[in-house]
Design brief:
The complex is a heterodimer of chains A (114) and B (109).
Chain A lengths: L3 E4 L2 E4 L5 E7 L5 E7 L6 E6 L6 E2 L6 E3 L9 E3 L8 E8 L9 E2 L3 E5 L1
Chain B lengths: L2 E3 L3 E5 L4 E8 L6 E6 L6 E6 L3 E5 L2 E6 L4 E6 L8 E8 L5 E3 L3 E6 L1
Parallel strand pairs in B: 2-11
Antiparallel strand pairs in B: 1-3, 3-8, 4-5, 4-9, 6-7, 7-8, 9-10, 9-11
Chain lengths: 114, 109
């Protein structure tokens, strides 16, 4: 593994189903983030984690949950998917040492909820 | 509220220079980032400014004016591979990034 990986690459999901998007990084970064990206809108932060064992809510957390059991993994779960959650989801990580925390992004997961 | 504004789309010619502007309003300020995103790919870091002035990095330069809440990304000697979206993001007092919608740059031969 080099950098950040996400799985699956893409998924079509029926509304009401539960789905977990996986994210793994091998850079030993403390901070990790989940964003969604929709056409015409900027990246919007869903949840974040500043260090293993802690998580926080971003701008659009409703309908999503996360966990951070260890440094490397940061899964995002949709408990009961709805069509408005159709989006491209990016996981990112950073060293978070001070203000300059360049975020490194995974390749993204394209999710379609029907 | 917090807000980032940047043009939706710009067109430029190969070999030319283009300037992409960004204005921001955030609760506190800890720096301004520019990222490049090719279609269907992840964003990648280009530059970071926290002090007023110009930061030059090869063909790309980034400028910041904190008093005006303004930044620009300057791309010189444009190449076809520079066709991408350019994302402006400001870091607020909680060290969270507030993202603009991105500027799609189209390069014509």
């Amino acid at each position: 593994i080099a950098g950040i990986t996400q799985a699956p690459t893409s998924q079509i999901l029926a509304a009401g189903r539960r789905m977990t998007l996986r994210c793994t990084q091998d850079m030993r970064h403390n901070a990790m983030y989940w964003y969604r990206q929709d056409l015409g809108l900027g990246l919007r932060l869903i949840h974040y984690s500043n260090t293993a064992g802690t998580t926080g809510k971003g701008e659009v957390p409703d309908g999503y949950s996360v966990s951070r059991a260890n440094t490397d993994d940061f899964p995002l779960t949709l408990a009961s998917a709805v069509p408005s959650q159709t989006s491209v989801y990016f996981c990112a990580s950073s060293d978070a040492e001070g203000p300059f925390n360049e975020q490194f992004f995974g390749p993204g997961t394209r999710l379609t909820v029907l | 509220g917090q807000n980032i504004d940047q043009p939706t789309e710009m067109t430029a010619t190969e070999g030319a220079i283009v300037q992409i502007n960004c204005t921001y309003q955030t609760s506190g300020f800890n720096g301004l980032f520019w990222y490049q995103q090719h279609a269907g790919e992840a964003p990648t870091f280009l530059s970071y400014n926290v002090l007023d002035g110009l930061e030059e990095k090869g063909r790309f330069s980034s400028f910041l004016s904190r008093s005006k809440g303004y930044s620009y990304l300057l791309l010189k000697e444009l190449q076809m591979k520079d066709s991408a979206s350019y994302l402006c993001a400001a870091m607020d007092s909680n060290y969270q990034l507030i993202w603009g919608a991105g500027t799609k740059l189209i390069i014509k031969p």
